[in-house]
Design brief:
This protein is α/β, with parallel strands linked by helices. It has two domains: 9-96, 3-Layer(aba) Sandwich (Oxidized Rhodanese, domain 1), CATH 3.40.250.10; 111-169. The protein is 46% helix and 8% strand. The protein has seven helices and four strands. It has helices at 9-17, 29-33, 66-78, 90-96, 111-132, 138-154, 158-164, and strands at residues 22-25, 41-42, 58-61, 84-86. α3 (66-78) links the parallel β3 (58-61) and β4. It is elongated and about 65 Å long.
Length: 173
């Protein structure tokens, strides 16, 4: 097994055009459905060591590069027998280089947009109800604001976790 340096989007495109590598997207199925490199295989990070991976050189891809870097470490620790690399800069670098992404028809909105829609709607609802029904409804606005602040400070967003398990976010690939 060899570990190559992270590769650029242009180098990956060259290797894909000659079918010299397999691309493994380690994001969650919902993320994969909303946009991925055509021909990539979706193997979420939490299932990486359980799935049979293609033979030959692999390039790992995620959104920012964090999960692909962790996946690289896991495969190296397991003694994966083939050349491993990761896409430098993640999927945004692929798109930034002008290469297309493939989106599945059943792809839900990205979770962050769903959180923004839900939080904004709850804040508006709290304000409307506090002005039309009872002043106590303003607590809903305070609650959502506090939740968003906590999510920003701690990195844990309960609303994201709740939305992720909703039926409309279940993607079958």
């Amino acid at each position: 097994m060899t570990h190559a340096q992270p590769i650029s989007a242009h180098d990956l495109a060259d290797q894909l055009s000659t079918q010299r590598v397999s691309v493994i997207d380690v994001r969650e199925p919902m993320e994969y459905a909303s946009g991925h490199i055509a021909g990539s295989l979706n193997v979420p990070l939490n299932r990486l060591l359980q799935d049979d991976l293609p033979q030959g050189p692999l390039v790992l891809v995620c959104q920012s590069g964090n999960r692909s870097h962790r996946a690289l470490g896991q495969l190296m620790a397991q003694g994966h027998p083939h050349t491993l690399s990761e896409l430098q800069g993640g999927l945004p670098s692929w798109q930034g280089a002008g290469f297309p992404i493939r989106k599945l028809k059943n792809a839900p909105l990205p979770l962050m947009r769903q959180v923004q829609i839900a939080a904004g709607s709850l804040i508006l609802l709290g304000l409307i109800l506090s002005n039309t029904v009872a002043p106590g409804w303003i607590a809903l606005t305070w609650f959502v604001g506090a939740g968003l602040t906590f999510a920003g400070v701690s990195g844990f967003c309960g609303m994201t976790r709740l939305l992720a398990v909703m039926p409309w976010n279940r993607v079958s690939l």
